[in-house]
């Protein structure tokens, strides 16, 4: 098939160590439009200035905050190099940070469900040789697309990406998405800023085709990156049942809200029986007042019930938290650690989850709260967040000590339990002996 003569360079800066789905999806759409496509994953290859020579369009994937921070110096370097390429960004954090990205030289900022818009942008370059148009036009309605199977042929080998760690060894992990967006409006969640309660299904056949090609490339485990896998429970059920029929030895992990775990407790056995290695659930806090402010849709008691239900069903739960918020107290942080210890969830919880500080991006629903606004000093455009301080300086100091403790423990190769014990010691006079803390048992998959 004859090329359009438009050369596109697709760039991923960071995607939590996973092979980037977005770059594969973009490649498929652009190649369907007969563009010349090359891909760069800067998390696996530092690249060089020559990678962009002759590019008509440079499109950068921004699925998360860290990816966006890493993209900023790249965008500035491309602009200062004198390149005439059109620079485009796409992904969740592209729309959230549209104004700042345009201020540093991005020509086109794409919002939710960006694939068709990216293809149209490339086609407009083919027609005119240059891009003229609006930098960013927010849409009130999230488009519905007929997705294409991602083209991963230009990406580094799967062996260079994340692996599942288990008691018996390591598995090569692939990554895919079955849905985008979310039905829920949790106040702190960046998905809400863009999707506003909408979610979109990636067609069943596309999801399975993507899994098949990753299995053929060596994947032994699949991470589903959906904000909530049970937003579309029928869709999810169909996928995991088919996946297990075709690949009975393939494991997977998903993210599911606490309220969905409670409402669909009868489906936990399906997860277990189809190879689910663990379920990530965003608990955020054990303080009911904080959970209400965040509009999480669950309570402390609900989370503890979900722990019980998952344990009875034989499903491993991996909770995540935002322990440092404007409402955190020394007592609430102690309580979080004590509950994780008493519920035998220390090995289930990544240490970084005990040191995360609330991030308030542009347009966050957190800005609706007066007690949040009064703690904000200013918007830091370069950092892409609102700077805030706690009313009690001791809590900010504790947050700083916690993150340093986690990083030092990881650098030293300590176990999750050992790092937890060090965090415990920050806020308790009585040390917590790791040998007394946990019974001997298999390592929780992560």
Description:
Helix 1 packs across helix 5. The chain has helices spanning 21-32, 65-80, 92-96, 98-103, 115-128, 190-195, 204-216, 233-246, 258-263, 268-273, 288-294, 300-313, 330-342, 370-373, 393-411, 416-427, 434-437, and strands at 7-12, 36-41, 57-61, 86-90, 108-109, 163-166, 169-176, 179-181, 199-201, 221-224, 251-255, 276-284, 317-321, 376-380, 385-388. The model has no long low-confidence stretch (mean pLDDT 93). The two termini are 44 Å apart. By secondary structure, the protein is α/β, with parallel strands linked by helices.
Keywords summarizing the entry:
about 450 residues, alpha/beta, six-stranded mixed sheet, five-stranded parallel sheet, about 40% helix, about 15% strand, globular
Percent of residues in beta strands: 15-25%
Helix content: 25-40%
Structural class: alpha/beta
| Termini gap | 44 Å
Rg measurement, Å: 22 Å
User: Care to count the β-strands?
Assistant: 15
Please state the overall shape, judged from the principal axes of the Cα atoms.
globular
Largest sheet: 6 strands, mixed
Query: Poorly predicted ranges (pLDDT <50, ≥5 residues)?
Result: none
